[in-house]
């Protein structure tokens, strides 16, 4: 996990503008919602 | 509230000056309108009360707040010294205190479209099952976005995603392939995808915005990423 996510954001020293930030925020939110709802879908 | 206090201060000072001037020119017979009427004192007590609430809202120092509390009590009890100069001096000390407090603080404007992300419970609701620290990270991500701290927001998002990915890895017990790792790396940085994945995404959805091959990854929904990787 450290290699996948954390190192890039921590060490790349990249800056993010507003649309990019909103894109990442929405995507992560979507991802977490997806993970949280998946078991219920499976049961159904 | 501060303007109300400043107006009252101006009125008190003018009244005091007129009274002094009348004394200097020896015209004690001139009638000067009394500034500190019962109505004026009631209104001033309200202004001081409002000023006190305002000061609490920006966490002011205790000293001016104590002064305001005492002046308000005196004005309400009607037992205070009603001379304009006396009330003006007390009010001036309070106004100076509040202005000093305001000068030593900074207030930030948050645009309407970003304000809704500040301490947004909807953002936090999505990560409830991932524990208290994930909730805190998501809250901070929203706050960073609201305050236009894009890089800090993405950093927080990565921490949140890490909780999700750990959960996912535990649940499926799967080894993460290099293809998924590539995609997730790009998710983390918002940078350029590998040529192979770029072609694959472009074939899948020709309606993607053309940003010269860079950074468009942030516009692709998560379901598509998972499906395509």
Description:
- The complex is a heterodimer of chains A (44) and B (229).
- By secondary structure, chain A is an all-alpha fold.
- Helix content of chain A is 82%, strand content 0%.
- Chain A contains two helices and no strands.
- Chain B is mostly helical.
- Chain B is 68% helix and 0% strand.
- Chain B has helices at residues 2-24, 38-57, 62-77, 84-103, 112-115, 121-125, 132-146, 150-172, 178-189, 195-204, 222-228.
- The model of chain B is unreliable at 205-219 (pLDDT under 50).
- Chains A and B meet through α1 and α2 of A and α7, α8, α9 and α11 of B.
Task: Please summarize what this structure is.
The complex is a heterodimer of chains A (44) and B (229). Chain A contains two helices and no strands.
Helix content of chain B: 55-70%
Shape, per Cα inertia axes of chain A: elongated
Distance between the termini of chain B: 59 Å
The largest sheet of chain A, given as strand count, sense and whether it forms a barrel, is: none
Number of helices of chain A: 2
Please give the largest β-sheet of chain B: none
Number of helices of chain B: 11
Number of extended strands of chain B: 0
Overall mean confidence score, pLDDT of chain A: 69
Cα-atom radius of gyration of chain A: 14 Å
C-alpha geometry of chain B:
rod-shaped
Largest interface: A-B, 31 and 48 residues
Roughly what percent helix of chain A?
over 70%
How would you state the average pLDDT of chain B, rounded?
77
Strand content of chain A: under 5%
* String of helices and strands of chain B: HHHHHHHHHHH
Helix vs. strand class of chain A: mainly alpha
Radius of gyration of chain B: 31 Å
* Backbone structural class of chain B: mainly alpha
Number of strands of chain A: 0
Order of helices and strands of chain A: HH
